[in-house]
Design goal:
Length: 318
């Protein structure tokens, strides 16, 4: 079901972007192909042979309104550079300038490292002179934005996955050592009195109990990255007891509920990195909130498991 929801959201976003871009074409929002009248001032003596010269560009409010059909609110003036080459003259806006829409979108679509420039038409002279600026055509703004966001999030997903691979490999190796040395089974015997009421269906001395203990311990210590591979391993061990592979058992539901509640005795590492020592002020709030959420999660899993509808779908009912 979640895949259908994500698929529907993607389709809706693409349709919205397509309609928005078509509307921009119809209304000529970005004035493609039309030069923008400006006044350029060269503070130093104009040199026709110089490749770069300091300049100031001014855009009258009425010219901006007539060009983009948007009221800027006041005359616009920006620092710039006059670039002269064999290909012609260009005006490059200074870095970090704040321009109104839709000029801001035009600059963002074609700029490289905050390099917003346009072709200059006019006869430069010392002082101020009238000219026009021709920006590169802007098309498919929303579609490009969605494509860029998809690539950025795909990169983020790969980065997160690579980070989890390292943690997974480390903790699985440590678990193999603990299992071979007998530490894991000793841990199971010590914690059985606490876990038996919560996981009565799991046999005594089963490895799943050890994985559950380690997973909950990592959560309590605020080690989210360590808790993830341990929770996955615990689910795999519980799945070995499941007679119906495509339906969750009561122990699996209980483990998922407890992980979702995520009771914590130590603030999360990310929160410590953000707040520093100030995180100590939230210690009791975090403890009380997570303890209450754990109680609610356990109670919900137990109570729902007693309902007739859920008892009939329990794989272990037979």
């Amino acid at each position: 079901m979640l895949n259908y929801i994500w698929g529907g959201l993607i389709v809706v976003s693409l349709l919205f972007a397509l309609v928005s871009d078509i509307r921009d074409f119809t209304l000529d929002t970005y004035a493609n192909g039309r030069p923008l009248p400006v006044t350029v001032s060269v503070p130093d003596a104009y040199d026709a042979e110089a490749r770069l010269q300091r300049a100031t560009v001014e855009i009258a409010a009425q010219d901006y309104l007539a060009h983009f059909n948007v009221e800027p609110g006041a005359p616009l003036a920006y620092s710039a550079e006059l670039i002269q080459s064999q290909q012609g003259r260009q005006l490059r806006f200074a870095e970090g300038i704040s321009v109104p829409e839709p000029l801001a979108t035009i600059c963002n679509m074609h700029s490289r490292d905050d390099d917003c420039r346009a072709t200059l038409a006019g006869t430069p002279t010392s002082g101020a002179f009238a000219a026009t600026l021709a920006f590169s055509p802007v098309r498919w703004v929303k579609m490009n934005a969605i494509a860029g966001a998809a690539l950025d999030f795909a990169e983020t997903a790969v980065t997160i996955a690579l980070g989890l691979i390292g943690g997974l490999a480390l903790w699985m190796g440590l678990l193999k050592i603990a299992e071979a040395s007998g530490i894991l089974y000793s841990l199971i015997r010590v914690t059985q009195p606490l876990l038996r009421p919560l996981f009565p269906e799991v046999p005594r001395d089963h490895p799943a109990l050890g994985m559950i203990v380690l997973n909950l311990t990592a959560n309590m210590l605020g080690l989210g990255n360590a808790a993830t591979p341990l929770g996955i391993k615990a689910m795999q061990e519980l799945q070995t007891l499941n007679p119906v592979p495509d339906t969750a058992t009561n122990p699996m539901v209980m483990l998922l509920a407890m992980n979702t509640a995520s009771v914590q005795l130590v603030p999360p590492v990310l929160l410590v990195a953000i707040m520093g020592l100030h995180v100590n002020e939230l210690f009791f709030s975090i403890l009380i909130t997570t303890a209450l959420s754990l109680v609610v999660a356990i109670a919900a899993a137990k109570l729902l498991g007693r309902l007739k509808t859920y008892r009939q779908t329990n794989p272990e009912a037979a």
